[in-house]
Amino acid sequence: MKEWLKEYKMYVILGAAALLFGVFYWLAPLENSKTQPEDKAEWSLTDLEEPQKEEVEDKTPEIILADIKGAVKTPGVYKAEEGERVIDLIEKAGGLAKDADASKVNFSMRVTDEMVIYIPKIGEEGEGFNGQSTVDTFGESTLVNINRADSSELETLPGIGPSKSAAIIEYREKNGPFKTIEDIKNISGIGEKTFEKLKDLITVH
Fold it and tell me: What share of the chain in percent tops pLDDT 70?
């Protein structure tokens, strides 16, 4: 028996070593497979969190200012959020006055920054009003230069028809350019009432 052990001792040791190596080799991949999904899941959650925060911040609406005039209960400058409509601004101004001509107002128009909205009164048409909604005409608050504007530009203003636009052009040809916007009251037919509608829509520079 002792002779047999001596003869096969080396084979027994090598076999045991091979067995231990095999067990270790088989268990190592299982251990790695348990940890890898956790690392991947942790990476995925971290990766998704930041873009979501940025997306929420981008949705903050921009605050703009718009000026509403004419036949509303409380005319003035109001804050509005980007994307709001003319009807929203009218509500902020207390609603339409009793004599407002709602048929000439584009309620669905989007409000823009520095927008001037003029709500006409009933019967304000013809020579006194050009028949088009001044919400459309003055959707972008671009002032009309009464020293340079031609008749078609002048007639976009409330209260200015063909005869008054011709009178404005004739006045500046005879007397030189208007020095102040108040000088437009020198035109026959343009009094204080009409000037109140024009003063925030015209310039001499």
Answer: 62
Q: How far apart are CA 11 and CA 8, in angstroms?
A: 5
pLDDT tens digits for range 106-163: 888 888 887 888 888 888 754 334 444 444 444 444 688 899 888 888 888 888 889 9
Predicted confidence (pLDDT) per residue in 157-202, tens digit: 888 889 999 999 999 999 999 999 999 999 998 999 889 989 888 9
Per-domain boundaries in the chain: 64-119, 144-203
Secondary structure class of 204 (helix, strand, coil):
coil
Sign of the Cα torsion 89, 95, 98, 102 reads positive
Mean pLDDT, the chain, rounded, equals 76
Reported CATH class of domain 64-119: alpha beta
Cα 144 to Cα 115: distance, rounded to the nearest angstrom: 14
Name the CATH superfamily for 144-203: AF1531-like domain (1.10.150.280)
> In whole angstroms, what is the distance from residue 81 CA to residue 88 CA?
10
Q: Could you tell me if 119 and 105 are in contact, meaning their C-beta atoms sit under 8 angstroms apart?
A: yes
Tell me the whole-structure pTM to 2 decimals.
0.41
Residue found under tokens 């109001």: 78
Question: Bridge-partner residues for 68, per DSSP?
Answer: 76, 117
